[in-house]
Amino acid sequence: MSVHPEPSRPVDRRVHVQGRPVGSWPARSPEAERGAVRRITVVGEEILSRPCREVTAFGSPALSALIDDMFLTMYVAEGAGLAANQVDVGLRVFVYDCPDDQGVRHVGHVVNPVLELPPPRGRRLLDELEGCLSVPGATMALPRTDRAVVRGLDRNGAPLVIEGTGYFARCLQHDTDHLLGHTYLDRLSARDRKDALRTMADRRAAVFARRAGRAAELGR
To answer: Model's pTM, two decimal places?
Structure first.
């Protein structure tokens, strides 16, 4: 999930980490300081179009390293969320650092997420711009429900319940879609999908250059 780039990312005292409020949190989550930058897959690569596998081994160095790398890769790409298949790993994991519409920042990771949406009668759709780090440079308006809940596990296998509203609800839906083998392009009309791909072709080189520059600034 992509966001519009910001000049800087200040510490936000209104922050929830792994679904729980904390007093403050650094601009880049501590996982990123341990991570390495990985290549982000691009729409059209086969791994993005197949469902990811359940994680069965928890508390492992490999899973922790993957999550750390995903956090740093997400920040370098100026994203709000990143799924494991976006770094070419077919496991059901995503990370996020995303605001909701009330300005509360949400940070964390979810393993083996299951998405729950309000019943149709109680849903309110928000038709807003959405982008994807695997569709570099393109954003399109897409309706999503304004509330979502994800149930899953943390890296050690402890249960999680993450609730989102507004933009954060969009992020939860977007990244759960990834793990099912879908990008947001799959939810667009044929015409809008064609327009998004055309925009990506025009802008991807500039996006890649910006990411490389940010990685160099961080010494990664």
So the answer is: 0.94
